[in-house]
Amino acid sequence: MLTAGTDRRRIAGEKAMGGFDLSGWFNLKGTSFESLPIILISLGIGLLVGIERERKRHVMAGIRTFPLGALLGTLCALIGQHLNAPAFPIAGLLVLASFGFLPGVHSVDDSSDPHTTTIAAFLVTYCLGVMVAYGYAPLAVASAILVTGLLYLKPELTGIMQKLERRDLYSLLQFGALSFIILPLLPNRAIGPYAALNPHNVWLMVVMIVGLGQVGYLSVRLFGDRVGAPLLGVLGGLVSSTVTSLIYSRQVRADPGAEQRASTVIQLANLVLNLRMMLFTAALAPAALPAVGLVMAPGLLLGLALTLARHHRGKGQEGQQKIALTNPADLKLALSFAAAFAVILVCSAWLNAEFGRSGVYTVAVISGANEVDAIVLTVLNLFAQQRFEAVPCATAIALAVGANALFKIGLIFSLGGKPLALRCLPTFVSIFAGLTLGTLALHMGWLS
């Protein structure tokens, strides 16, 4: 018979499982077999992890020991509930932990392997068994899948770590400092002229830009020597389309044979810029996404089709140059972006107050020629503060992207030469055409 306390714990467990109650499916409630489903789930969790360990031929724990460990965790939790002793599972964990580190346990054939991973996995499996008894079976099963994947993918994870250099790990630490040390310390309130500056929001934009760049940077570091030009262009665009254009233009100047590959990378990196604008809008100002999407999507789709078709025709002419990008989490770069963003915020707020939309459009053209992200985030911030409407917001973004494209084609011509610029020109023309058509459609009221 269940006591009132046990019944409360069972009801709480069913709520924690979100309706995941197998005993009700098999009409086991109220019988002596009511706990059978959670025992079977525990055994399944142990088998999942144990099969992976058995495949590694670890003699100390495998396909039999891990299910027993998970079952022990479930039984300890059930006994603790029955005895009203919540510390009982903890005592079982401590006993297992002390047993796992006894010298006799490590007297196996391979004396060079301390089996610390297997011991840790066994203790985690015990804890998953406890979770099942407490009503968190779905979470325990999901955790078991993650644990098994982590154990199984050891060669791949080791290979990744061997590719990362000290500077790459340092960049991750820098990004962690930007995100979790500096950001929480900044005040989350509007200050400065026109209440345009919110230090917390300014740095949050820095974290978002740096985080997106970090994904592309580490992807290039890990896979840049194996992927083709299309994916390399996408990754380079995530980090910085300007830097990618500069690097590959210089490579073509040094090696004209790399022109085909360089043109593909440069064109796709600049097309990713349109996608970045839509992603920023979706994250920061979702209500403006239809307008921004109408302006950005035509050029993106047209340019993408054109670039991939040209790349497919000249695929055999690719070179093998690698891309070498600057760490986007560098503190100096982050501070310079934050300063530029703050200045553009104040200038845009002032010009919007004094001259209306035309003032913001002027800032968009001037600042967008060199750096698109800062002005785009500024415009989206104005929209979020209800100082700007969706149509002028999308128009300002289109002006910034168009000015940036003009600057890029000049950069490519000056650094990479006329042949490379002519190869890239159709894609930039498609970007301009898409921006123009999208902006005209927007002002003609296609979304109204």
Task: Sketch the topology as an H/E string, one letter per element.
Answer: HHHHHHHHHHHHHHHHHHH
If you average the pLDDT, what whole number results? 79
> What class do helices, strands and sheet pairing give?
mainly alpha
Could you tell me the radius of gyration in angstroms? 29 Å
Strand content: under 5%
The N- and C-terminal alpha carbons lie at a distance of 66 Å
Tally of helical runs: 19
Largest sheet: none
Given as residue ranges, the uncertain stretches (5+ residues, pLDDT < 50) are 1-6, 15-19
User: How many domains, as an integer?
Assistant: 2
Shape call: elongated
Q: Can you offer a commentary on this structure?
A:
- Residues 207-416 form the DUF4010 domain.
- Keywords: Membrane, Transmembrane, Transmembrane helix.
- The protein has 448 residues and is mainly α.
- It folds into two domains: 4-152, no CATH class; 162-443, no CATH class.
- Helix content is 75%, strand content 0%.
- Helix 3 runs antiparallel to helix 6 and helix 17 (372-384) runs antiparallel to helix 18 (390-416).
- The chain is elongated and about 75 Å long.
- The N and C termini lie far apart (66 Å).
Describe the structure concisely for a colleague.
The protein has helices at residues 4-16, 22-25, 36-55, 65-82, 88-100, 116-133, 137-152, 154-163, 166-185, 199-223, 229-239, 241-254, 259-284, 289-313, 331-355, 357-368, 372-384, 390-416, 418-443.
Task: Based on the model shown, name its key terms.
448 residues; 75% helix; disordered N terminus; mainly alpha
Helices and strands, with pairings:
Elements: H1 4-16, H2 22-25, H3 36-55, H4 65-82, H5 88-100, H6 116-133, H7 137-152, H8 154-163, H9 166-185, H10 199-223, H11 229-239, H12 241-254, H13 259-284, H14 289-313, H15 331-355, H16 357-368, H17 372-384, H18 390-416, H19 418-443
